[in-house]
Amino acid sequence: MKVLILSALLCMYSAVTHAATHAVTHAAPVSKSTEEAASMVEGPLPEVEMFAGQCPSGWFKKGSRCFLMVTSKKNWSNAATHCVGQQGSLASVQSSDEYNFLQTMVTFSGQSSAWIGGFHFQGAWRWIDSAGFYYTNWQTQNSVSRYPCLQLNSNGGWSNYNCRTSRAFFCARNGPPSC
Ligand SMILES: *[C@@H]1O[C@H](CO)[C@@H](O)[C@H](O)[C@H]1NC(C)=O
Fold it and tell me: Would residue 179 count as lying in a domain?
């Protein structure tokens, strides 16, 4: 019962906060996207509790999922390990909405590309979080045997590259339960 009351209060709180944020955003539309995008780029963060209706601090909500951009560069497998340490996975990209969101972050962060969670294994492209590989956005596709890791490019689309290269990367995790 106490837990139920607490989560109801958190839902009310986050609804009010959300409304307030929207009011401010609508009052000052100028350079909103630049500021928003700049504030999206965060380094690794300690584990943070998830509040009702919100992503953990430093993560950004898109649809039903939360995304984190990590700008300290790592090779693909170390990036994947880092995301697991943040209770997430190297990000799958499951829709054009998610793709556009991540693409905007790469561009505003000044990175030329960032790792995402796609890799080629046993004849197929797969996502490390086990999502189905249905949505695609290829810019170029190189030899899958030499370049089995997927990167999202700031100049559009994604391509496969050498997994040992160090890059910024995206983690994703399931979003908070909706109220
Ligand atoms: C990734 O980087 C780590 C740390 O530098 C290194 O130990 C590991 O061998 C690298 N893995 C690959 C596939 O390059």
Answer: no
